[in-house]
Amino acid sequence: MISHTSLQWQSSDWQSILQTAIRDSAELLQAVGVPQSSLDTITGETAGFAVLAPRPFVARMEYGNPKDPLLLQVLALQEEIAPNAVGTTDPLEEQRFTPVPGIIHKYFGRVLLMTAGTCAVNCRYCFRRHNDYAQNILTPARLNEALTYLRSQRDITEVILSGGDPLLTSDRKLSELVAELEAIPHIQRLRIHTRLPIVIPQRITTELCQRLGQSRFQVTLVVHCNHPKELDVEVGLAMAQLKAQGITLLNQTVLLKNINNCAATLETLSVELFKIGVLPYYLHTLDPVQGAAHFAQPMGDSKQLHQTLQARLPGYLVPKLVSEIPGGASKTLIY
Questions:
Q1: Residue 126 assigned to a binding site
Q2: 88 occurs within a structural domain
């Protein structure tokens, strides 16, 4: 159920909240009252992927619970660097679908524009945790090159802002980018993939909502929420502001062992998302990224779990169970 635990952050602006995010495993455990002896942790630096957890997100964790599903998504554990850990640094082979820096063009008619090189939270299962964003971040010169590419590819009808998290871009710069895209006639839709409205809902400002609402594009915002405990009053208010501007709201979830691989948890998530105007979209199987194998579960279990969801929920609340296979023409549906 939606809680009130993050109301303490109501008066803070999102940039200040980001600056005070927790960036160390020991500090994170102390903040949630979990002894370091309860979990075999490592520092983010040792893992090669720093700990980063905004305090509004941390405030939703159950104090004293070392198995809290929000905590385990962001805490660096020894399992990430186990000798028998499997996975690759580029599980989706995105490098071979990068025609120019900042663009990933895998599917017909739509492209990803890598708008930011960092996130507001470092999820330990992130499939881009090893990505060298410095090679693709949109400097002014690279943005011009990316826009030139978009103008030349007249079959592109949708641009997806991704990263990193595109909403780490300021309202002013984001507005300027949207205006550049609006000037390309064959682009009809804008999609934004972001976790910020979940982990720092204060990022959804009046200015941002109004700019997206005024766009000539059909705008879709896809949030990333994995567990019903991630939803609170502030998240609901953020979604309401976006919805008031006519923005389509969807959610994608990653299926994670010991986090949300439970039919009751996913059923509650779908119901709670719908209450705040967000439709379930995708339920992703884990991408085989190096350092995240401990989150994976057998495919057979995933199929059975999804079948249970289909039996319990109306069709519009059942996210599509998908995997992403490099070189595929789309996401691969799993039945």
A1: yes
A2: no
